[in-house]
Specification:
four-stranded mixed β-sheet; 4 strands; globular; 13 helices; alpha+beta
């Protein structure tokens, strides 16, 4: 996917999300009056507060801790070098004790920016592949993806709360109080919540392509290194069935992850049948050989991350 097409798709998606939200919210206000005005402020305030303190919650819930330069000088050196190439301030370097290979970037104005890699990622990947993963995560920070996705995620949440509150109001309203109108607005709000969620997921997938491109352009042989890293992450996570069942509690983090662990098992079924020695490049070739079926395309609509085959093909185009 070309850079121009990525940017056009991203800004177009943002415009659709904002336009649909503004239009429908205006209709709701015109039908219900100003009594609903306090709800948006409550939802926005809740989400902003959640964003501000979320880094501390992530650290506590998912056993993430900051590592000093003396503890892991190689990882620190990689982050500092690539931050300079990315023209951003180096984030805090974190290690997450999560038993699946993955990485994520997060932060807030009060907590600062952070890049975390899991202990399993450091065991699974070679140094050059870790470098490519770090480059991807720094791309998210450079493009302010945390702030953008927080902003667009507020809009679906807003209409979910509106829909839920209107349906609840209709349930306890009499016919004279026009409970039917409230129910209609509630159902329409929940439908819009579903539509906006699909657009938000699409925007999330576009941001992943942008971060991939960033890593590929600031690292020598970036497309090859990141392709091998992504293939190994997906392949390894797909084979860790028991471990992934034990870490289902980490699913709330999957929007931040570099790869979606929920789709890992399906992506590795065809690869697992290969009998030849599985070198890194052979693994990438096997992933690229996999056909993207109609079922894969439908599943991608509900995913925060692009289909792994399409993602690796996009990196191949950069080579």
């Amino acid at each position: 996917m070309s850079l121009w097409k990525l940017r056009t798709s991203m800004f177009g998606t943002l415009a659709i999300i904002i336009a649909l939200s503004t239009l429908f919210f205006t209709v709701i206000l015109s039908l219900t009056g100003i009594s609903l005005m306090t709800l948006p402020f409550l939802v926005v305030a809740f989400n902003v507060a959640q964003w501000l303190i979320s880094p501390y919650l992530i650290d506590a819930m998912y056993r993430v801790h900051e590592v000093s330069t003396s503890e892991n000088p190689k990882l620190h050196g990689t982050v500092e070098k690539l931050s300079e190439k990315s023209h951003i301030r180096p984030p805090k370097v974190m290690i997450a004790k999560i038993p699946i290979p993955n990485a994520f970037a997060y932060g807030s104005p009060i907590a600062g920016t952070r890049v975390a890699v899991t202990t399993e990622l450091l065991k699974t990947l070679e140094d050059e592949e870790v470098e490519a993963v770090v480059g991807h995560e720094l791309g998210h920070l450079k493009h302010r993806d945390v702030q953008i996705m927080m902003f667009v995620s507020i809009l679906p949440a807003l209409f979910y709360y509106i829909g839920y509150s209107m349906l609840l109001s209709a349930r306890y309203s009499t016919r004279e109080e026009r409970g039917g109108g409230a129910a209609l607005i509630g159902i329409a709000s929940l439908l819009l919540y579903w539509v906006l969620t699909l657009f938000t997921l699409y925007l999330s997938r576009l941001r992943e392509y942008f971060a991939d491109r960033h890593s590929a352009t600031i690292i020598e042989e970036g497309p090859r290194k990141l392709s091998e890293a992504l293939a190994k992450i997906q392949y390894t996570a797909g084979r860790m069935r028991r471990t992934r069942r034990e870490v289902n509690g980490f699913n709330s983090l999957k929007t931040l992850f570099i790869a979606d662990p929920d789709h890992a098992e399906a992506d590795t079924i065809a690869i697992a049948q290969v009998r030849a020695p599985m070198t890194d490049q052979r693994l990438v070739e096997e992933v690229l050989r996999k056909e993207v079926t109609t079922l894969d395309k439908i599943a991608e609509l509900f995913s925060t991350h692009p289909n792994i085959v399409k993602r690796l093909r996009a990196l191949q185009e950069l080579e």
